[in-house]
Amino acid sequence: MSFLELKADTHRQFGGFSWMRVLKGALLRRTFRVVVTMRLCQAAAKSRGALRVMSPVFKLLHRVATHMAAMDFSWQTNAGAGLALTHGWGLVVNPGAKIGCNVTLMHGVTLGRSDRIGADGERTSHFPTLEDEVWVGPHAIIVGGVTIGKGSRIGGGAFVTESVPPYSMVLGNPAVIVKSNCTPDVMNAAPL
Predict the structure, then answer these.
(1) What is the pLDDT of residues 28-61, one digit of tens each?
(2) Which CATH number describes the domain made up of 86-185?
(3) Which residues make Cβ contacts (< 8 Å) with residue 189, sequence separation at least 6?
(4) In angstroms, rounded to a whole number, what is the distance separating the alpha carbons of residues 187 and 103?
């Protein structure tokens, strides 16, 4: 776990960083607890020292944290610093998804894979990429090898199957761009 990632995650949650805020959030905020346990699991997996021995314990803690928060959010997900999970209920993130820095995910969001089967029968899987400062509204679904451009906002209930250019606002099912050059929606943006 990079100290900077956890510091940025804490800043997004509380508007500043201190170890007391990390402890308070891990104990009292179910969505923040998921982020903390994910960072612990990732730190243990990268460690070559004593922290690696704690990996099974951290994975168990993460499983309990996601269960208590009613989320399916793998510790293996590539998530940048400053991740904010708001409400969280029903959140589903495929471990192959890539999430940039200062991203906000609301409840019911799905970041899912799409599979294509070629003429030769070979299956290829594709996963979404969310660039920095993306805001994803409640119950939005983003599927497949799409890229959501920096600073974009995905409206609640949107079904996104095509890439979105930076600083765009997307609504609907199927999703359409309703505004370009929009301002990113990042509450308590972590200084990176």
Answers:
(1) 999 999 999 999 999 999 888 888 889 999 999 9
(2) 2.160.10.10
(3) 12, 82, 102, 133
(4) 10
Sign of CA dihedral 43, 67, 94, 160: negative
Would you kindly state where each structural domain of the chain is located, as residue ranges? 1-71, 86-185
Size (the chain), residues? 192
Residue 49's contacts (CB-CB under 8 Å, 6 or more residues apart) are none
Q: How crowded is the C-beta side of 104, counted as CA atoms within 13 Å?
A: 24
Block residue for tokens 């699991």: 41
Both structure tokens of 118? 């070629």
Question: How far is residue 131 CA from its own chain's centroid?
Answer: 11
Dig out the tokens for 62 from the structure: 């993460």
Partners of residue 93 on adjacent β-strands: 73, 111
What's the angle, vertex CA 128, arms to CA 124 and CA 129, rounded to 5? 125
The radius of gyration of the chain's CA atoms, rounded to the nearest angstrom, is: 17
State if pTM tops 0.90.
yes
What distances in angstroms separate CA 120 from CA 115, 126, 132, 147, 155, one per listed residue?
14, 18, 37, 27, 38
CA distances from 99 to 28, 52, 63, 76, 145 (A): 25, 24, 20, 12, 13
pLDDT digits (tens, 9 = 90+) for 85-131: 999 899 999 999 999 999 999 999 999 999 989 899 899 999 999 99
Phi, psi of 80 (to 5 degrees): -75, 175
